[in-house]
Design goal:
Oligomer: single chain
Radius of gyration: 33 Å
Low-confidence stretches: 1-18
Number of strands: 12
Helix content: 55-70%
Mean pLDDT: 79
Structural class: alpha+beta
Number of helices: 18
Distance between the termini: 79 Å
Largest sheet: 6 strands, mixed
Length: 490
């Protein structure tokens, strides 16, 4: 008896191991009676075969046409009417079966269609066939499509073209967004700026070209009308090149540029914050208050001075950032302007780096000597916390020749890589980092950890190195922006 039970148990285990989970992909159309019949048949089959998984796609759903085109290419089947089913190595297109026999064979009745479909499922279970979705080739590149909420003629053209491209190049992935939410609209605006195209819909981004509204935008050359013979050919060539070269996805390109932009802002602000000009004025201000016996006011005056610098630099920076976004945003003016700014950054950086060995020879990029008495006089006249804030606002104008170089380079970068809200946020971050050393010096002097005289001696001793570090940052930013333009990141 025990031996019999053991044999039955072993047989059940072996049967269970032989049963393989099968995934079936089912495309349907709402209102299609044949689709409803097949859907009911498949649902009943699931009761007999609990390991049968069904993935359903509405043929009218966004992006589903592209997926269908890929599966048709993999199964070497032609597009036909719904219902469409893929399971194992068999495709059912309407009543036509591919892969069930050496040649496509058509089911003449619904009973035969259902019998053959069940046979295909059983074959997939027996052969442990993978999911149809697993048969899709790995993605070589990606196209990103943005569609308005309603229908439009250009939308239909783009979707038809993309379906053809996917059938021709199954490794092309298509990601579709509908512009009915803030997240999709923000992403659309960012990609439009990345591809130097106006924010018009529908929009398609793939490889190094973009379709926006009724125009196709290329890295170089005038925009082409779309749809048109020339525009369609240019888009097809761009898709073919993107697939062949495995071009980076537009979304990955955007992510990379945002990471580079954030890194440039943080690094630029950190290096720009070690500024000998601002240190000199702050030390003079704190020293004046200490001489007058107002140590209690040192911390508040230092913070107020830093706040004045912050407000002035952020305000001026945001105005310049907005102007650069309007003027440099034109395609014809963008690259020449960025190359001019980058070249100036490289030249200014090299000139500042020479101060490591030849400080004071020829001229140094700092506050002009003729301005220094005025700055000292204004700073020495401060006796109150509000006065320290005002002097921070005023001195920021006098200190512009010493501090504006890195700032202008960063502003140019932000004007080409960010939306207005992003730019404002990154400018706040830049200027906060910029004033951190001033806040640190204020606390060190207030709590007696250092003195103004010692801070000034440190500034004088490190002046050459500070100029060199600032120059090196300017040089690297200039080179980075030139490379970014060439690679299409700016």
């Amino acid at each position: 008896m025990r031996r019999w039970l053991w044999s039955v148990g072993l047989a059940l285990v072996l049967w269970a191991g032989a049963a393989h989970a099968v995934e079936l992909v089912f495309f349907f159309d709402k209102g299609c009676l044949h689709c409803a019949r097949i859907d009911e048949f498949l649902t009943n089959l699931q009761k007999a075969y609990p390991d049968l998984g069904i993935v359903r796609y509405d043929i009218q759903g966004r992006g589903n046409w592209e997926l269908l085109a890929k599966l048709l290419a993999v199964y070497q089947a032609e597009l036909g009417p719904v219902p469409i089913v893929f399971v194992g190595h068999v495709a059912m297109i309407g009543g036509l079966f591919y892969g069930l026999q050496p040649e496509p064979v058509e089911a003449r009745s619904s009973l035969i269609q259902e019998a053959w479909l069940e046979e295909a499922i059983l074959r997939a279970r027996e052969t442990q066939a993978p999911s149809p979705l697993a048969l899709l080739p790995p993605t070589s590149t990606e196209a990103v499509l943005f569609l308005p909420e309603g229908d439009c003629p250009t939308c239909e053209v783009l979707e038809i073209l993309l379906s053809g491209y996917v059938a021709r190049w199954p490794s092309l992935a298509v990601k579709t967004y509908v512009l009915d939410n803030a997240e999709a609209q923000t992403l659309w605006e960012k990609l439009s700026r990345l591809y130097r195209a106006p924010a018009a819909s529908p929009a398609l981004f793939v490889g190094d070209v973009a379709v926006a509204g009724d125009k196709l935008y290329r890295p170089r050359g005038t925009p082409l009308a779309f749809p048109s013979l020339e525009g369609n050919e240019a888009l097809e060539q761009a898709v073919a090149q993107a697939v062949e070269t495995k071009a980076i996805s537009p979304l990955e390109k955007l992510k990379l540029r945002e990471q580079l932009t954030l890194g440039a802002v943080v690094a630029g602000a950190a290096l720009d914050s070690i500024n000998p000009c601002d240190f000199a004025v702050l030390v003079l201000l704190l020293g004046t208050l200490l001489v007058m016996g107002k140590r209690v006011k040192v911390i508040w005056a230092g913070l107020a001075f830093a706040a004045g610098i912050f407000v002035a630099y952020f305000t001026l920076g945001f105005v310049l950032y907005s102007l650069l976004g309007l003027t440099v945003g034109t395609r014809a003016f963008r690259e020449p302007f960025i190359f001019v700014i980058s070249s100036l950054a490289i030249l200014v950086g090299l000139w500042q780096m020479k101060d490591l060995l030849w400080y004071g020879k020829w001229f140094s990029i700092e506050v002009p000597d003729s301005w220094k008495p005025t700055v000292k006089k204004l700073t020495a006249s401060v006796v109150s916390v509000p006065g320290a804030f005002v002097i921070g606002l005023v001195d920021s104008l006098f200190l512009a020749p010493c501090t504006s170089g890195p700032y202008i380079v960063i502003l140019t970068l932000l004007s080409q890589t960010t939306t207005r809200w992003q730019g404002a946020g990154l400018l706040l971050l830049y200027n906060f980092i910029f004033i951190l050393p001033m806040i640190a010096i204020t606390f060190l002097v207030h709590f007696g950890i250092t003195t103004t005289a010692r801070a000034e001696r440190w500034r004088q001793a490190k002046l050459r190195k500070l100029h060199f570090v600032t120059g090196l940052m300017m040089f690297l930013l200039g080179v980075g922006m030139m490379v970014g333009v060439r690679l299409g990141w700016l």
